[in-house]
Amino acid sequence: MDLKIWLRIGDCAEYESFDDLDSATDWLDDLNVGPVTGWIDSGPGVGYTAPGYNGPNLVSLFWGDGEGNLVAPLSSFERETVERKLATA
Questions:
Q1: Per-residue confidence band for 38, with pLDDT thresholds at 50, 70 and 90
Q2: What is the pLDDT of residue 11?
Q3: Phi, psi of 82 (to 5 degrees)
Q4: Which pLDDT score, from 0 to 100, does residue 6 have?
Q5: How far apart are CA 10 and CA 4, in angstroms?
Q6: Nearest to 42 by CA among 56, 25, 24
Q7: What is the DSSP letter of 88?
Q8: Which helix (H) or strand (E) holds 9?
Q9: What is the pLDDT of residue 44?
Q10: Among 2, 1, 6, which residue's Cα sits nearest to residue 74?
């Protein structure tokens, strides 16, 4: 199965797919979404919260199939990478 990183900023945006985590975090950094304030693995979605993005309005970020169906959340190492990259955003 060819997995992609799926990303959506807030609950009104469209999902975007990326071939790798670096491309996704570069895009988040370019948009100045802000630092990670917490991770969510169920309930309103899979991804993280950031200033202005919480509850169902989170930043969705996960590994998915070609159709955007959730396959797996990010690993601990991948989460640390996202946090480090966006800490200065």
A1: very high
A2: 86
A3: -65, -45
A4: 97
A5: 19
A6: 56
A7: T
A8: strand 4-9
A9: 67
A10: 6
